[in-house]
Every structure is written in C-alpha cells, then in structure tokens.
Amino acid sequence: MRIVILGHSITSSWGNGHAVAYRCLARELSELGHDVLFLERDLPQHAKHRDLPRPPYCRACLYGSVAELRKNFIDDIMTADCVIVGSYVPEGAKVGELVSGAGGVTVFYDLDTPLTLAGLKEGRCGYLTRKLVRNYSIYLSSSSGPILEKIEREFGSPMARPLYCPADPETYYPEAITDRRIWDMGYMGTYSPDRQQSFEEMMLKAARKLKAKTFVVAGPQYPEDIIWPVNLQRLEYLPQNMHRRFYNSQKFTLNITRADMKRAGYSPSGRLFEAAACGTPIISDLWEGLSEIFEPGREILISRSADETMDYLLYTPERERVKLGIRARERVLRSHTAARRAKELEDYIREASGAARLPKAG
Fold first, then answer.
1. Minimal CA–CA distance to 230: which of 250, 248, 215?
2. pLDDT confidence bin for 15, thresholds 50/70/90
3. The dihedral sign for the CA sequence 332, 338, 343, 347
4. Are 189 and 219 in contact (CB under 8 A)?
5. With contact defined as beta carbons under 8 Å apart, do 268 and 293 qualify?
6. Has domain 2-164+337-357 been given CATH number 3.30.420.40?
7. Is 183-335 in CATH node 3.40.50.2000?
C-alpha cells in the first residue's frame, strides 16, 4: 500500500514522544512492503533539534502551512491507499478537512486519546473536531478499554481500535554500562503541571530523604523555581539515540502518568515500553488497565507514595530486581513491539476498506 502519515514529528524527538512511535512504525510498515510518506509541519522548536532529518525507511517532507501542504502534496494524499493524521498536528482540524476528500482509508491516530477527548468536550481541541471523528474511517487510540466504545457511541466514529505506542527492540535492549556511575532511580518526561504533584512525591521527596542514593531527571520545560535535590542530576534534553543508555544507567526507572490518561485508564506511555524493552525495572503509579499490560509485582512495581518508592530502592533484593526487568522485557517482546503494531495497523486498514480492494503487501 501507499501510506501517507501526517504526524506531529518524525525528524525531531525534542520534547515529544511522538517521533519515537512514528519512526519505528514507519520502519516496520516499510519492512512489510508498504511505501510510506511522512509529512511534517516545519516548526521552529523541531528545526533546532532534528536528530533524524532523513529517515532511511520512508520519505520525510516538511511543509510550512496547510496551503503549502495542499499545493505540494495534494496528489499524494488523494491517491494514497491510506492517509493517517496524528494528534497534535498543527492546524490538524484543517489538515483533517483536507484529508477527508482522499480516496483511500482515512485514519486519525491519537497518541493522546484522553487529552483529545477532554479537549473535544471543552471545545479546545485544535487538531480534531466531532465532525472529523465521524469522517475518519478509523480512530486509532493509544488508549484501550472502555474509551473505545465511548469514541464510537458518543463521538460517532465508525471504527475505533487500539494501537498502543510501539516498543522498538532493535533500539531498546539491555546493555552493560561500565564507564560511569549507575543512578539508583531515574525519570524521563517533559514537565506537565498535572503530573507535578506525583513527581514531587515519588521522585523529589524520595531523593531528598535518600541522600545516599543518586537520581536523574531528563526532560525539558521544568519551571526555574524548582529546588532540585543535591543528589539529583538534571538533563534538559536527551536525544533519542541516548534513551537506551539512559534507561540502562538506572537501577529503577519511574513512570508517572498524565492525569487525564490516569483517569481514563488503559493508557500506557511509549516510555513505559521503552524502559521495559531495556530490561530496566519500573516503578509506576497505579491506573486501571495497567495489570493487563504488565503484571504488578512480577513485571512492574506499583508505588502510591514516596515511602513505597523508597522501600523498593532500599529493600528489593538485587536478584529480584534483575528478574523484574527481564520479565518486563519478555512481556514487551511478546505483546508490544513495533512489528506487532505495524501488523495491527495493516489489519485495521484492510478491515476498514475490504481486503479485496487493496493490494497485498510484499
């Protein structure tokens, strides 16, 4: 198939996890024999941090406006077998209106489903409208569970299906880090006000109390008035090619979920799968559906407070810590790889269009 993806970014992973998901998904679609064109809005913040300006597995082209998109790429969009528009695409609603006239299967890929639906309800979603939800052939959601029925029943999608963020075992895997000190616990994530209370409790409070332990936080946009513990290292920007090293440099990594995603449940982040693929033991907050993705106590540890986090750091036997990471990685390899996500996407496209009308891959 000829597939056109209009996503937030594939050329720059700065301040967003979308690029990581799109990169491995585009690569695996290419491996399946599909031709992939990725169209990306040329944004200043990404222009300064393009860590993959020319992906080797797809064509990546930039456009400066919706008018320029229409002028230069309308033929690609109208004649593609499938056109995918992602969440947080600048002027995404206008892009969606443009795409709605395409002849192939049209897909909205929501990497931020609970945030998107909250925005739709409040009338503040710039990249999607209720009309477009009904117009897209498929609504792909990074959340599963009851929210899929809600997308169909309340918002009118003809077909809502889950597509969790993919893990890439070719990029994320265990490796020994011997040339520097290993942190006792780390966290990767862009600053978010709705995560800050949990972040203060589970990371900063634990770091201040465990002065003999070492901590690290990677991610941009944190307020300047945060008082960081002296035993915590700050990394403002971490390019994607350093993520594996970052996870493998931690004894434990912390996962904190956005408030809307936590309320919705069944909303794992891509970072969760990245860390697990590296075999790094994960300490996570609790939300509905987590136990269907990783088994608590066996593949992931659940924390509700600084005290529980500190207990894991202080009292988990080393042998059990290592086994925890191994079991989480095994779960990812079984259920959450990029290759599996690409096949799921392929199946959804065929389901929506009718297999007889589309060419077979390969």
1. 215
2. low
3. positive
4. yes
5. yes
6. no
7. yes
Integer Cα distance of 112 and 127 in angstroms: 12
Distance CA 333, CA 343 (A): 14
The residue to which tokens 């996962």 are assigned: 255
What distance in Å separates the CA atoms of residue 10 and residue 21, rounded to the nearest whole number?
A: 8
User: What is 304-357 written as a DSSP string?
Assistant: SSHHHHHHHHHH--HHHHHHHHHHHHHHHHHH-BHHHHHHHHHHHHHHHH-GGG
pLDDT in tens, 159-177: 999 999 998 898 899 998 7
CB of 305 closer than 8 Å to CB of 202: yes
Q: What is the rounded CA–CA span in Å between residue 219 and residue 316?
A: 27
How far, rounded to the nearest angstrom, does the alpha carbon of residue 15 sit from its chain's CA centroid?
12
Q: Residue 145: phi, psi to the nearest 5?
A: 75, -155
Query: How much of the chain is in helix, strand and coil states, percent to nearest 5?
Result: 45, 20, 40
- Beta strands 35-41 and 59-63 are parallel
Q: Where are the domains of the chain?
A: 2-164+337-357, 183-335
311 vs 199, 248, 285, 314, CA distance in Å?
17, 21, 15, 5
Q: Which residue has the tokens 């862009």?
A: 190
User: Which positions ≥6 away from 244 have C-beta within 8 Å?
Assistant: 171, 172, 173, 175, 278
DSSP states of 151-204: HHHTT--S-EEE-PPPB-TTT-------SSPPEEEEEE----HHHHHHHIIIII
Q: How many helices (H) and strands (E) does the chain have?
A: 16, 13
Structure tokens of 60?
A: 């990546």
Q: Do 2-164+337-357 and 183-335 have matching folds?
A: yes
Confidence class for position 358, pLDDT limits 50, 70, 90: very low
